[in-house]
């Protein structure tokens, strides 16, 4: 258990030997490592859940024997080209076009949306623009599908939507809205030579209350990850629609709910499956699952135009440690080289875990193997950027939490949503970190580690020890958090002789 802990005095950070060294994460079984020099990787902000005017509405047909007509701009209103331009303006390096609609939407995506994506790539080349969709997910709600960049990407996505989207057929086919159908789809995606990614969107939006889940259940997400560990790699930690409590003039809507979470509210802007310390996400990590979190805009219509949304990158960012290539950004998402932030609270989060000799190291998304009884040094460096964010606020990091939990293997109860070993190891504040310009640095040592586990980092601009439920009418710019994906620490088996 990662409990015997000793902090190094902050002054020790001045020693050059404690600098953070960029190293590749340990390879994971079944994962294909990207052939990129890790030194060429940097934090690239992006958004994998962005709607355009090809997210269609439907108009019933006058002929009851014919399917409804798809209505362009019936669900979201902005061209893909506008989304990309606004993504660049708000600091993004990559984004994913993720539209959906009613019956036969696969044809609209293939024949209308994809050509516009190609034009958008030419018009805004500074933003890597992935082809994808928001899957109307069998036996669930929605999920982002991200297709690898290739000459065959248009047809690849067309086949996925045609064959697996639950709203695609007309008349509706109940057989396409079962968990078994979704697992069959994931098996097919996992078997592809260049598999896509599937990330569960707003997982608790339909939850009845905290701990009472809706369209997504813990057992269901375990089933996804078991079936396709290279494809079903995570969930939105912070959902979109975070501007739902803002009026068009920037004031507050008293009845606005962040994320559209009406019954089980977000907590500091994050879904309960992520935000609850020792909750569902920690239960997945406690099984040793490589199951990551992201954050998105879910942009449909901007709040100044009567919608509930921010532009891509305006409020929420998913940072991926990657070279500026399609393949390496996808590899970073697949392998958890990711941290997420709201309101530009931070713009870099580097965490390393190293053994006593300092030669073996792991970064976010990686794995460090040590002998039982080893000390493990955790180095955290965070950039707290100067200046105002897009809400006109100049946020400052008030606290950073180092969190640890045990890895004990598969849960006997597939519905488990807790990990009792998860705890805050240390809360760092201005008195316990070293500031050098915009960089905040801190060190902690886990002493005498004898059980496999993981560490992860989060931070906030406020003073809540744990994120509280977001009230209706809460201004999203005043309650900012960031979360980093974990590093796994594995006790290596003893060798004889």
UniProtKB/TrEMBL annotation:
Disordered, as annotated region: 55-74
Protein name (database record): Phosphoesterase
């Amino acid at each position: 258990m990662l409990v015997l802990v000793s902090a190094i005095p902050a002054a020790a950070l001045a020693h050059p030997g404690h600098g953070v060294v960029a190293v590749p994460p340990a390879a994971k079984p079944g994962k294909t490592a990207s052939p990129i020099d890790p030194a060429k990787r940097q934090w690239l902000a992006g958004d994998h859940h962005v709607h355009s005017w090809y997210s269609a509405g439907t108009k019933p047909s006058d002929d009851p024997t014919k399917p409804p007509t798809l209505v362009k701009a019936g669900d979201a209103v902005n061209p893909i080209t506008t989304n990309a331009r606004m993504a660049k303006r708000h600091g993004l390096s990559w984004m994913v076009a993720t539209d959906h609609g009613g019956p036969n939407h696969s044809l609209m995506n293939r024949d209308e949306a994809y050509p516009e994506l190609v034009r958008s790539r030419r018009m805004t080349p500074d933003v890597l623009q992935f082809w994808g969709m928001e899957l109307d997910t069998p036996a669930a709600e929605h999920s982002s599908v991200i297709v690898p960049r290739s000459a065959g990407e248009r047809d690849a996505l067309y086949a996925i939507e045609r064959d697996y989207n639950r709203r695609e057929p007309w008349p509706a086919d109940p057989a396409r809205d079962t968990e078994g159908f979704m697992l069959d789809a994931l098996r097919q995606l996992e078997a592809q030579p260049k598999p896509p990614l599937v990330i569960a969107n707003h997982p608790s939006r339909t939850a009845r209350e905290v701990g009472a889940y809706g369209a997504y259940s813990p057992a269901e997400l375990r089933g996804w990850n078991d079936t396709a560990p290279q494809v079903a790699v995570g969930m939105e930690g912070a959902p979109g629609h975070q501007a739902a409590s803002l009026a068009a003039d920037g004031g507050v809507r008293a009845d606005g709910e962040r994320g559209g979470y009406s019954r089980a509210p977000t907590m500091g802007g994050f879904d309960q499956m992520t935000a609850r310390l020792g909750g569902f996400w920690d239960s997945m990590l406690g099984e040793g699952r490589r199951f990551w979190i992201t954050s998105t805009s879910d942009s449909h219509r901007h709040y100044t135009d009567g919608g509930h949304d921010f532009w891509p990158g305006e409020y929420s960012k998913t940072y991926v440690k990657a070279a500026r290539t399609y393949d390496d950004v996808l590899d970073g998402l697949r392998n958890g080289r990711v941290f997420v932030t709201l309101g530009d609270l931070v713009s870099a989060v580097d965490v390393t875990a190293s053994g006593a000799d300092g030669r073996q190291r792991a970064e976010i998304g990686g794995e460090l193997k040590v002998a039982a009884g080893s000390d493990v040094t955790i180095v955290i460096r965070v950039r707290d950027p100067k200046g105002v964010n897009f809400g006109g606020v100049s946020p400052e990091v008030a606290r950073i939490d180092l969190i640890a939990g045990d890895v004990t293997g598969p849960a006997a109860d597939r519905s488990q949503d807790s990990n009792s070993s998860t705890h805050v190891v240390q809360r760092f504040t201005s008195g316990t970190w070293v500031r050098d310009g915009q960089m905040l640095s801190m060190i902690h040592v886990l002493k005498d580690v004898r059980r496999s586990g993981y560490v992860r980092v989060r931070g906030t601009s406020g003073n809540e020890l744990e994120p509280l439920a977001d009230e209706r009418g809460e201004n999203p710019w005043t309650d900012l958090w960031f979360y980093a994906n974990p590093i796994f620490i594995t006790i290596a088996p003893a060798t004889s002789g």
